[in-house]
Design brief:
By secondary structure, the protein is mainly alpha-helical. The protein has 14 helices and 3 strands. It folds into 2 domains: 88 residues, Tyrosine recombinase, N-terminal domain (DNA polymerase, domain 1), CATH 1.10.150; 173 residues, Intergrase catalytic core (hpI Integrase, Chain A, Orthogonal Bundle).
Length: 306
């Protein structure tokens, strides 16, 4: 890849980090997408971004689809491309943006995968809470289900972010935005026991700024927690594919099924746009049917007549 291509990507990522305050995972996704594009253009003999043309970018989209990427993944690559070329235009690296006329596929947003309440109970009972590791795992699962945190937010939690008297967490989410997320009595009890018994056993006199730690006193990684969740789901006999995000989906779905309003759920999840939260309304048909039966004038009047 040309150094001229890679240098502009680095500058773009620096801008996103400093001015937009994007999370590391988001920056890494942009980096992967744009480096893939740069390598493609380099293979076509383009060593500067200003040499790229709409035809090159159309060919790149075709190339992505030929490599069996889903429409969703292709669309994400194109979004990265659009943002990057806008940056190049703003910085006067290019005179004309070649992306706007580019067609890319749009895909319907997938309905979130979630667990039933019974499945959540089975999952929560899998860790052996008589051991320090089991108590840690059970606390993490309970807290994730109680708050709907992103897994990256969960593993980066620090003790000072907890308020056990007020029963809430202070969470720094995407874009550096801080939000307050409440948790219930079950999570509070697990947290209290973990802090009192399990965490000191794992630390063995050592210190760590992180709440959830391994035997080596290091923070548990996102990948490590993913493996734990997968193992416990298999042990519980849950046939669905279960990830930490599944628990976030379950949190939102069960709140809405219980009657929570959409704005409150949006706030707890840390969604910037309520349209992101609205997808969960598609998975609560029982509540929708009950609302229709109760409030539609034809249904409510027929019920009164009977």
């Amino acid at each position: 890849m040309s150094t001229l291509l890679s240098r502009q990507i680095d500058l773009f990522l620096q801008m996103l980090a400093v001015e937009k305050g994007l999370a590391r995972n988001t920056l890494e996704a942009y980096s992967r997408d744009l480096n893939r594009l740069a390598n493609f253009l380099a293979g076509r003999g383009k060593i500067r971004w200003e040499e790229s043309e709409t035809l090159d970018l159309r060919s790149y989209v075709v190339w992505l689809r030929d490599h069996k990427l889903s429409d969703r993944s292709v669309a994400r690559h194109v979004v990265s491309m659009r943002q990057f070329y806008r940056f190049l235009e703003k910085e006067s690296v290019i005179e004309q943006n070649p992306v706007p006329d580019l067609f890319f596929p749009t895909s319907a947003r997938r309905l979130p995968r979630f667990l039933s309440r019974e499945e959540m109970e089975k999952l929560l009972h899998q860790p052996n809470d008589t051991t320090a590791i089991g108590a840690r795992d059970q606390t993490m699962i309970e807290l994730l289900y109680a708050t709907g945190l992103r897994v990256s937010e969960l593993v980066r939690l620090q003790p000072h972010q907890m308020n056990l008297e007020g029963d809430y967490l202070s969470v720094k989410g995407k874009g550096g935005k801080v939000r307050l997320v409440p948790f219930g009595s079950w999570a509070k009890e697990r947290l209290s026991q973990y802090l009192k018994m399990a965490r000191p056993k794992l630390l063995k006199g050592r210190s760590s700024p992180f709440l959830f730690v391994t035997r080596s006193a290091k923070p548990l990684s996102r990948q490590g927690f993913w493996k734990l969740i997968k193992g416990y789901a298999l042990a519980a006999g849950i046939e669905k594919r279960v990830t930490p995000h599944t628990l976030r989906h379950s949190f939102a779905t069960h709140l809405l099924e219980g009657g929570a309003d959409l704005r409150s759920v949006q706030s707890m999840l840390g969604h910037a746009d309520i349209s992101t939260t609205q997808i969960y309304t598609h998975v609560t048909p029982g509540r929708l049917k009950e609302a229709h039966r109760k409030y539609h004038p034809r249904e409510s009047s027929s019920a009164r007549e009977k």
